[in-house]
Structure formats: structure tokens, C-alpha cells
């Protein structure tokens, strides 16, 4: 069976967890997949083996991305011909937007980010309109929808009217070769790997950290991600910017704890990466995080600075229970298992 995987809307370094999902899925299918796969990528992606699609005018800027997608939606026939979708038995759109639009072969669409349903105020009017149209059209046309958590599936069914029997829940995985315990000594810092998007809740985190520093003057807060230089940070905050994965893995292993105050997550990979590294996790109760982290995290209300402070303080005083639980929890998530579950969806489409 020949399966197409369309990554045309992938923008390296910009789209966060969805980029990790797309790349790791393709790699895992190459290891354990049982079908024949053809990966379609834009010209700006150079670290995934696949066929570059020249008629898609990829861009790294938001206006450019919207223009490229708009042109592609109005010229789907040209894209379909260049990609040769007529030769495929099934096609998958891991980044939600169905580009090109297809009626045949049967398609699967993954949904990772639906925060606009819960926090529309975080998006411009144009972005909200785009998501309603592009996501809605893709979800209606897809034969199958892949949700990355039960929380996302519930939202699809209850808020977006998607039939539950069309939705398959497939959890994301972890690279256990990179994210693992090590011999580095622990250092007095909290780690938060997140781009400064509104739902990542940096402002409340900074207020909580200022309180923690009064109790623990040696404590630092290390931030990684793209665009963090725009933030005004309190004393003790170290901005590392976007770091390579091996450097991020080292930060996990050296951190006293991961702090994850997000207001919304469809899955939440950093807590699992920290757990796999032997690092205790202090997490908000938002979105899918309790589903993914189980009993291996200390939770707090992301709207309460005081709860955040108390949760971090508790974990720093006694981290070992969460370390053991976290290592056990993280073992349940692998990219190979994720890929095999996708293969089941592909076979269902072709059938």
C-alpha cells in the first residue's frame, strides 16, 4: 500500500510540538512502518527525506504562510498533479491543514492545536477566521481524524461536531535515546522550554519565580525557545533561546525540576521528556496534561501564582517520589508505537 504524507505547511523552528510530531513520525515509519510511504515537503525543509514540492510557495513569515496556503487551496489541482496523489492508496496530513484538498485517495488529518476553541483572544481576527475555515474544511473532508489525546477527541466531538467513530486517539512518543537519565549533577534551576506564545503563561511564571527567589535566592529559571528575547524577565532568569536537542536533553538532566505552567496543551511533550530524563515535573492542570502525566507530576492551577509557588516548593523539598513515577510513566510513550498506530489508521483508510 502506498501512503502519502503531506508536510507542506511545516515551518522549521516555528510550529513547536507539531514539527517534532511530523519529523519523528516520518522517522519512526521508516523504522517500523509496514507500508510504502511518500513524504511531500516544502522547499524550506532540508532535514527530512522526501520530495520537495516546488509549486507550493513556502514561507517562514505568517503573512507569507497564509498567502501560500491560500494559493494552494485555490490551485489544488496543480498541487495534486505535481504530488501524484492519484497513485496513492491513502494520504495523511499530520499538520491539520489539507493541502492539497483531496477527495480521493481517502485522507486522514491530525489535530494537535485547538487552543483557539478555548482561548480565541490569543489570536487575531484573521488567524481565528483562518483556523475556522482551514481546520473546519480539513476535518470535514477527512475520512479519519487523528487526535493526540482523549482531551482533543472530546473537544472535537463536543465543540466541533466531529463524529466520534471517525476519531482515533494516538498519543505522541519520546526519543528515549536522547531523553534519558545521565550522570550530570543537578543544579539549582527550573527549566521551561516554550516559545513565548500567550498560552504558555510566562507572565504568571515570572511572578511565581520572584516569590520563589525570596525563599531560595540561589534558584534560577532557564528558558528555551524561539522569540524569548522579546520578554522582560526578572532577576535570576536565563534566556537560552532555541537550543539543539542534545543541549535541551542536558538541561533536563541538570535541572532541579521542570516547571510547565501552560494554559492549554493538546498533548504536552516537555513534561514527558523531563520524566524520561529523571527530572521531577511541576505541571498545570490545563488541557491534556493530567491525562498525559498521570500521577507522575505535581499539579497546580495555572491561573494561581500562589499554587504554582507552593507546588514548586513542595517538589524541590522532596523530588524523589516524582522522579521514580516519572521514569515509569515515560516508558509508556514511544515513537515506534505511535507509528504503528498510524499504520493501523492508514490500513483502515485503504480498506
List keywords for this structure.
Rossmann fold, six-stranded parallel sheet, 351 residues, alpha/beta, 13 strands, 2 domains, 13 helices, 42% helix
Record the SSE blueprint.
Blueprint: E1 2-6, H1 17-32, E2 36-41, E3 51-52, H2 62-74, H3 76-83, E4 90-93, E5 107-111, H4 115-118, H5 125-141, E6 144-147, H6 150-160, E7 167-169, E8 189-193, H7 202-215, E9 220-224, E10 237-241, H8 245-254, E11 257-260, H9 269-276, E12 281-284, H10 289-293, E13 298-300, H11 305-317, H12 320-330, H13 335-350
Parallel strand pairs: 1-2, 1-4, 2-3, 4-5, 5-6, 6-7, 8-9, 8-11, 9-10, 11-12, 12-13
Helix pairs in contact: 1-13, 2-3, 7-11, 9-12
Structure, described:
The chain has helices spanning 17-32, 62-74, 76-83, 115-118, 125-141, 150-160, 202-215, 245-254, 269-276, 289-293, 305-317, 320-330, 335-350, and strands at residues 2-6, 36-41, 51-52, 90-93, 107-111, 144-147, 167-169, 189-193, 220-224, 237-241, 257-260, 281-284, 298-300. Strand 6, helix 6 (150-160) and strand 7 (167-169) form a beta-alpha-beta unit. 42% of the residues are buried. The protein folds into two domains: 2-173 and 334-350, Rossmann fold (3-Layer(aba) Sandwich); 189-330, Glycogen Phosphorylase B (Rossmann fold). The chain is built from 13 helices and 13 strands. It has 351 residues and is an alpha/beta fold. The strands form two sheets. A seven-stranded parallel beta sheet has the order 3-2-1-4-5-6-7, sandwiched between helices. The chain has a six-stranded parallel beta sheet with strand order 10-9-8-11-12-13, sandwiched between helices. The termini are close together. The model has no long low-confidence stretch (mean pLDDT 89).
Amino acid at each position: 500500500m502506498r501512503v502519502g504524507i503531506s508536510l507542506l505547511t511545516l515551518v522549521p523552528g516555528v510550529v513547536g510540538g507539531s514539527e517534532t510530531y511530523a519529523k519523528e513520525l516520518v522517522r519512526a515509519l521508516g523504522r517500523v512502518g509496514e507500508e510504502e510511504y511518500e513524504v511531500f515537503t516544502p522547499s524550506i525543509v532540508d532535514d527530512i527525506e522526501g520530495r520537495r514540492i516546488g509549486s507550493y510557495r513556502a514561507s517562514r513569515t505568517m503573512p507569507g504562510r497564509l498567502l501560500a496556503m491560500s494559493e494552494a487551496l485555490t490551485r489544488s489541482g496543480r498541487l495534486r498533479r505535481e504530488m501524484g496523489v492519484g497513485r496513492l492508496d491513502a494520504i495523511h496530513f499530520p499538520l491539520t491543514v489539507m493541502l492539497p484538498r483531496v477527495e480521493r485517495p481517502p485522507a486522514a488529518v491530525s489535530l494537535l492545536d485547538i487552543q483557539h476553541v478555548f482561548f480565541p483572544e490569543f489570536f487575531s481576527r484573521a488567524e481565528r477566521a483562518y483556523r475556522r475555515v482551514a481546520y473546519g474544511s480539513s476535518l470535514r473532508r477527512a475520512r479519519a481524524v487523528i487526535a493526540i489525546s482523549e482531551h482533543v477527541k472530546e473537544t472535537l466531538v463536543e465543540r466541533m461536531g466531529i463524529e466520534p467513530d471517525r476519531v482515533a486517539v494516538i498519543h505522541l512518543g519520546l526519543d528515549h535515546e536522547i531523553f534519558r537519565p545521565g550522570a550530570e549533577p543537578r543544579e539549582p534551576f527550573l527549566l521551561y522550554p516554550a516559545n513565548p506564545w500567550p498560552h504558555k503563561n510566562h507572565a504568571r511564571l515570572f511572578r511565581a519565580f520572584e516569590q520563589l527567589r525570596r525563599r531560595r535566592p540561589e534558584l534560577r529559571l532557564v528558558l528555551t525557545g524561539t522569540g524569548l528575547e522579546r520578554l522582560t524577565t526578572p532577576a535570576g532568569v536565563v534566556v537560552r533561546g532555541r537550543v539543539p536537542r542534545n543541549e535541551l536533553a542536558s538541561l533536563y538532566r541538570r535541572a532541579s525540576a521542570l516547571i510547565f505552567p501552560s494554559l492549554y496543551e493538546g498533548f504536552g511533550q516537555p513534561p514527558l521528556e523531563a520524566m524520561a530524563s529523571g527530572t521531577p515535573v511541576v505541571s498545570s492542570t490545563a488541557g491534556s496534561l493530567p491525562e498525559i502525566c498521570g500521577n507522575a507530576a505535581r499539579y497546580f492551577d495555572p491561573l494561581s501564582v500562589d499554587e504554582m509557588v507552593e507546588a514548586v516548593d513542595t517538589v524541590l523539598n522532596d523530588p524523589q517520589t516524582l522522579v521514580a513515577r516519572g521514569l515509569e510513566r515515560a516508558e509508556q510513550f514511544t515513537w515506534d508505537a505511535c507509528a504503528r498506530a498510524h499504520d493501523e489508521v492508514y490500513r483502515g483508510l485503504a480498506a
